[in-house]
Automatic annotation (TrEMBL):
Signal peptide: none annotated. It comes from Romboutsia timonensis. Keywords: ATP-binding, Cytoplasm, Nucleotide-binding, Nucleotidyltransferase, Transferase, tRNA processing. It is an enzyme of class 2 (transferase). ATP binds at R60, N64, T119, S145, S153, R197, Y238. The keyword Nucleotide-binding applies. Its EC number is 2.7.7.87. It is found in: Cytoplasm. Belongs to the SUA5 family. L-threonine binds at T37, H69, R123, A143, S183. This is Threonylcarbamoyl-AMP synthase. SUPFAM superfamilies: YrdC/RibB. Required for the formation of a threonylcarbamoyl group on adenosine at position 37 (t(6)A37) in tRNAs that read codons beginning with adenine. One of its GO terms (biological process) is regulation of translational fidelity.
Length: 346
C-alpha cells in the first residue's frame, strides 16, 4: 500500500497538510497520528469497513474493542447513553487529556468498533495535531495504539514510520508523545468506577474528584489475566524480541544480581541489556539504558527503551522494579506484561 506521509510541526501546524490526511479518513481509510499518550492508528469509528482496516493493519484480534476519539464533549451524547454524574465530572475535569471512559453505547456505534460489546470506550485527546485531524475529519475516530499487535506502543515518529509505512493509507509524523503510556481506561458504568487499564492519569488523581475508584483485580497476576475486563489486557503485549525480566528487591541486591547475571550471560555469548533509573546507570555492566530520574520520565521512555533493545540486538533485558505509586502503577503494568510476568526476587 502506498502511504502518504505528512511531517507536521506541533508548534506550527500546517492545516492544509492535515486536510490531506483528514480526507483519507473521510474516505474510510486508515491514518496514523500522534496523541499526547502514544501514536494512534485511526479510521472512521462509525464505518465498519474502515474499522476493519485498523484490525488488518495491526494484525489485531477483532474481539478487542477500540477507543473512539472525539473532538468535543457534545459528540459523546451521540455515541453513548446513561451518562451519569461521575462520567460528567471526569469529562469536565480531565478532558481533553489521557483518560478514556467506558459508557453504554448507542446503536450508531458498530459492534466492529466495540468488539461486540454493548459499551464503548471514548476519549478526547489533548494533542493539537490529533485534535486538528479529528476536527477536519468531522467524524469520531477509532484509534488503537499504532503498533503491530503485541509490540510496544509507538511513542516517536520513527517508531511508526519503521513499523507501519506501507500498512496504512496515511501517517502524520508529529514528534514525540509527551506521556509515552496509553490513557487510563475507566469504567464508569458501574456503581463504583473501576480502572480497567492504569495509565497517565492516576487512581489518586481520580479519587480526588470522584471518590472511591477500584482497580480491576485481575491485572495483578498472570493467572488472572484472562478475566480482565478490558479485553486488550488479556493479550501478550509490549513485547520486544528480547526476553525481559524484572528484578525486584532491595536496591543494592538488585544491582549485584543484575551484574552477576550480565557476567554469566556474557560467558555464554548472550547479549544483555539493563533498564534502570538514571541515578544507577553507572553501577551496571552490559548495555545500559537509563529510563530517567522520575516516574514520569520512566513512563515517557519505557516503550522507546524496549524498542531500542531490539535495535541493539539484545537477547535478554533486566529491568529494575519501579514504585507502583501514581503513574508507577501504569509503568509496572506495562513492564510486567512485556516481561510476561517474569520476576527475579533478590
Ligand atoms: O492512549 C490511548 O488510549 C491510545 C491512544 C491512541 O489514544 N489508544 C490505545 O488504544 O491505547 P488500544 O486499542 O491500544 O487500547 C484500548 C484498550 C484495550 O485494552 C481495550 O480492550 C480497552 O481499551 N477497551 C476498549 N473498549 C472497551 C470496552 N468497551 N470495554 C472494556 N475495555 C475496552
Ligand atoms: Mg495498544
Amino acid at each position: 500500500m502506498n502511504t502518504i506521509i505528512s511531517k507536521i510541526d506541533i508548534n506550527n501546524i500546517d492545516k492544509s497538510e492535515i486536510k490531506k490526511q483528514a480526507e483519507l479518513l473521510k474516505k474510510g481509510k486508515t491514518v496514523i497520528f500522534p496523541t499526547e499518550t502514544v501514536y494512534g492508528l485511526g479510521a472512521n469509528a462509525l464505518d465498519e469497513d474502515a474499522v476493519k482496516k485498523i484490525y488488518e493493519a495491526k494484525g489485531r484480534p477483532s474481539d478487542n474493542p477500540l477507543i473512539v476519539h472525539v473532538y468535543s464533549k457534545e459528540e459523546v451524547y451521540n455515541l453513548a447513553k446513561n451518562i451519569n454524574e461521575k462520567a460528567e465530572i471526569i469529562m469536565e475535569h480531565f478532558w481533553p487529556g489521557p483518560i478514556t471512559i467506558i459508557l453504554d453505547k448507542k446503536d450508531i456505534v458498530p459492534y466492529k468498533t466495540s468488539g461486540g460489546l454493548e459499551t464503548v470506550a471514548i476519549r478526547m485527546p489533548s494533542h493539537p495535531i490529533a485534535r486538528e485531524i479529528i476536527k477536519q475529519a468531522g467524524v469520531p475516530i477509532a484509534a488503537p495504539s499504532a503498533n503491530i499487535s503485541g509490540r510496544p506502543s509507538p511513542t516517536k515518529a520513527d517508531h511508526v514510520y519503521e513499523e507501519m509505512n506501507g500498512r496504512v493509507s496515511g501517517i502524520v509524523l508529529g514528534g514525540d508523545c509527551n506521556f509515552g503510556l496509553e490513557s487510563t481506561v475507566l469504567d464508569v458504568t458501574t456503581e463504583t468506577p473501576m480502572i480497567l487499564r492504569p495509565g497517565s492519569i492516576t487512581k489518586e488523581e481520580l479519587e480526588k474528584v470522584i471518590g472511591e475508584v477500584l482497580v480491576d483485580p485481575s491485572l495483578a497476576r498472570k493467572e488472572d489475566n484472562d478475566k480482565a475486563k478490558a479485553p486488550g489486557m488479556k493479550y501478550t503485549h509490549y513485547s520486544p524480541d528480547a526476553d525481559v525480566y524484572i528484578v525486584s528487591g532491595n536496591e543494592n541486591n538488585i544491582i549485584e544480581k543484575i551484574n552477576s547475571l550480565v557476567e554469566e550471560n556474557k560467558e555464554n555469548g548472550i547479549r544483555t541489556g539493563v533498564m534502570c533509573l538514571e541515578k544507577n546507570k553507572d553501577k551496571y555492566k552490559g548495555e545500559v539504558l537509563s529510563l530517567g530520574n522520575t516516574l514520569e520520565e520512566v513512563g515517557c521512555n519505557l516503550f522507546h527503551a524496549l524498542r531500542q533493545m531490539d535495535k541493539m540486538n539484545i537477547d535478554v533485558v533486566y529491568s529494575e522494579e519501579f514504585s507502583t505509586y501514581g503513574v508507577g502503577q501504569a509503568i509496572m503494568n506495562r513492564l510486567l506484561k512485556s516481561a510476561g510476568y517474569k520476576i527475579i526476587n533478590v
